[in-house]
Amino acid sequence: MSAAVRENPADKYLRKERMPSIWCPGCGIGTTVNCFTRALDASGYDLEKVAVVSGIGCTGRVAGYLKLDSFHTTHGRAIPFATGLKLARPDLKVVVYSGDGDLSAIGGNHLIHAARRNADLLVVCVNNLTYGMTGGQVTPTTPQPAIASTTPYGAFEQSFNLPHLVASCGGVYVARWTAYHVRQIAKSMGEALQKKGFRFIEIIAPCPTLYLRRNKLGEGLDEMKFYQEKSVVMNGADTREVSLDFRDEIPVGKFVDIERPTLEEAMESQLSKALGAKYVPYSLPVKA
Amino acid sequence: MTTATAPAANKDAPKKEKKFRGVVTVNREHCKGCGFCVEFCPLECLDLEADYNAKGYHPPFLSQPEKCNGCDTCGLYCPDFAIYGYREKLDGSAA
Amino acid sequence: MSNANSSGVLTGSHYLDGDHACSEGAIAAGCRFAAGYPITPSTEVVERIAARFPRVGGRFLQFEDELGASIALLGGAWGGAKAMTVTSGPGFSLMMEHIGYAAITETPCVYINVQRAGPSTGLPTQPAQGDMMQARFGSHGDYRLIALCPNSPQECFDLTVEAFNLAEEFRVPVLVMLDEVVGHMTEKVVIPPAGEIPVSPRRWTKKAPGEFKLFEPAEGSLVPEMTMPGEGHQIHVTGLTHDERGYPNMTIAAHEKMQRRLFDKIVLNADRIVKWEEKDLAGAEVVVVSYGITSRVAEKAIQAAKEKGVKVGSFRLITAWPFPEKQILEMSTKVKAFVVPELNLGQMSLEIERVVGGRCKTVGVPHVGGTVHKPEVILNAILEAVR
Question: Taking the CB of residue A283, how many other CB atoms lie within 10 A of it?
Answer without folding.
Answer: 9
